Write the structure tokens for this entry.
Amino acid sequence: MFFSRAKSLVGLDIGSSAIKIVELKDLGKGKGYQLLNLALERLSPEAIVDGAIMDAGLVVDTIQRAFASRKIKGSDVAIALSGHSVIIKKISIPATSEEELAEVIPWEAEQYIPFDVEDVNLAYQVLKGASGDEGNMDVLLVAAKKDKINDYTSVVSQAGKNPQLVDVDVFALQNCYEMNYGDEGDSAKALINIGASTTNVAILKGTTSIFWRDISVGGNHYNDAVRKELNLSFEQAESLKRGEEVDGIPIENVTPIIASVNDFIGAEIQKTIDFFKNTTPGENIEKLVIAGGSSRVPHLREALAERFGVPVEPLNPFHKVQVGRGLSPELVEELGSSVSIAVGLASRRAGDNR
Ligand SMILES: Nc1ncnc2c1ncn2[C@@H]1O[C@H](COP(=O)(O)OP(=O)(O)OP(=O)(O)O)[C@@H](O)[C@H]1O
Ligand SMILES: [Mg+2]
């Protein structure tokens, strides 16, 4: 990989509320990356529901608009899937050779994934380090539904781009963290990407991930609660959530609704972290690192810090990325919280297999 001349890819994050694009330049020789371009184009909430593409035309249009908005020329892209259509499992199997492993994996996968093996694409990676059981090895198994892969790659193709690589949101998130904070100590931390409908959680020890989970909560919960309580439209609720004024609605009416959803989201994240702690005794999470558009909801960060009693820091996807000339610091700052997945994707290369 180090000497790879494989083409660099444009990171294209097809989120249910917005399309995000990031283009990086690899500066080579371990010098890191330069940010060449980035874009965000909002997507109507009916276009992708629960991770399923309901209106492909709208998604195609929005992808095209996002590319055009910042004149992004690259057309080989990396995308990612998340949610129910992806299963990630660490499995322990009798140690075998590489060749044998390729044959064994589909059989092993059958026991661990809730889908027919015929219906999924399987990827795997042998994990370094000793397995818990003598004579066994740990393998990271990833299964993604073929129909989902097909739905997502086909909107990309229809938008005139070449889908070269399909990743998984939590891995792209982890990748973004490693690129930017790879040298930070050995403590366990939870990376939490809070989107519109999904929250991706990756727990890392040092830079090794030890747990992954997608939970079905996110920014839409705020919009739904504000809409219902105050009898408003999705768009009005969206503005209020972002702290913008909406005619005739005093902010005091909105604050308690947002606070209660902050509590709800915190509780859902806590369920996941408690599950991790119960299944991985002896590990303490020492820090939360938050990303995703919804990490900017007023007071969510404070609510999480209070609930978990640990520091909560925003992930800066450009912490170690040089920002190219011609990009306004305001744009980079404004989009920063939303583009972690796209940054993680943009550092992938054609031919990377995860
Ligand atoms: N400034 C802000 N304040 C509050 N919420 C915000 C802000 N900016 C964006 N959001 C919310 O963040 C969410 C979008 O975040 P993001 O782009 O990470 O999600 P997504 O990738 O589109 O969704 P998903 O991954 O769940 O399909 C939306 O719910 C949006 O309302
Ligand atoms: Mg997302």
About this structure: The domain at 86-144 is CATH 3.30.1490.300 (Dna Ligase; domain 1). The chain has ten helices and 16 strands. The longest strand covers residues 33-42. The pocket of adenosine-5'-triphosphate (ligand 1) is lined by residues 15-18, 195-198, 218-220, 238, 241-242, 292-294, 296-297, 338 (CB under 6 Å).
